[in-house]
Amino acid sequence: MIGRRHGVELAFVLRGHALGEAVPDNRTTGARRGNSNFEVIHDRETRRLEIRDPRPETHISYLPSHYSPALMLPYLAAFASALLMWAAFPPLDIGPLAFVAPIPLFWALRRVERGFEAVSIGFLWGTVFFGMLLYWITILGFIAWVPLVLLMAAYYAAYSLLVWLFRLWPAWRWWLIAIGGWAAIEFLRARFPFGGFPWGNIGYAAGGFAPLLGSVQFVGPAGWTVIAVAFAAAAALLIDSRENWRQFVDTTVVIVLLGVVGALFAPSADGNPVRVAIVQG
């Protein structure tokens, strides 16, 4: 049987039969009231707690659910999300993944129970994504690559904490916070430090998808960042409950409309050719 005591989920294993009623007390182990006397053993080395009935063949024990493999799912989801986001950019350049990649990240952040876990998930996401996206910088040495990746990861660790803090708010409010927070993070990254580093902004991958390319003239890469995050956050809400369908449908309609308008009024390069030189600084 599964129970919760003092905010920690515990998995109980019962063997034998004992008469009595379990009641909480001020200790972490709890107490038992009834016809039986129980011995409580707490091994701090293994974090194992056992309650034994002196009578034969009666044994009650429980282990903290920290050992459950299911608790690793949010971290695995964040890792998969980072890989999908990397695949949305060159060299794979699968633009539609920019809309899908944040979904596992949002799913994970809405399921963890502690702020430290949210920060860890965000930092993991940022480290994997930017570590792979910016690996080419290692030609300058790992001394340039490592600090930059860690700085970018720190941005998304802070963002993840923000999203986690408001996870219990009404769905539409959380949705707006998730969108605005991501847009704000990209705005800050593009300006700080040392003039900013906008590599990895979602809008470049989402808006660069061929069917949507014509619409960039209307909303720009920043606009497509907002739309892509809105779609992913709405999908995460829909996974939680079918009642949260409105945000998903509205965002999907906006994407389709922008794609159609961009295709109908696509810009054309019909001016005089101009030769330019670009120097990366």
Question: TL;DR?
Answer:
By secondary structure, this protein is α+β, with helices and mostly antiparallel strands. It is built from 9 helices and 7 strands; from the N terminus they run βββββββααααααααα.
Could you describe the 3D structure shown?
- Helix content is 50%, strand content 12%.
- It is of the alpha+beta class.
- It has a 5-stranded antiparallel sheet, with no helix packed on it. A two-stranded antiparallel ribbon has the order 3-4.
- It is globular, with a radius of gyration of 25 Å.
- The relative contact order is 0.09.
- The N terminus is likely disordered.
List the helices and strands and how they pair.
Layout: E1 2-5, E2 8-15, E3 21-23, E4 31-33, E5 39-43, E6 48-52, E7 59-64, H1 73-87, H2 97-100, H3 102-109, H4 115-133, H5 142-165, H6 171-189, H7 202-207, H8 216-240, H9 245-264
Antiparallel strand pairs: 1-2, 2-7, 3-4, 5-6, 6-7
Number of helices: 9
Terminus-to-terminus distance: 62 Å
Number of strands: 7
The major β-sheet equals:
5 strands, antiparallel
Q: Order the strands across the largest sheet as they lie in space.
A: 1-2-7-6-5
Structure characteristics:
281 residues; alpha+beta; disordered N terminus; globular; single chain
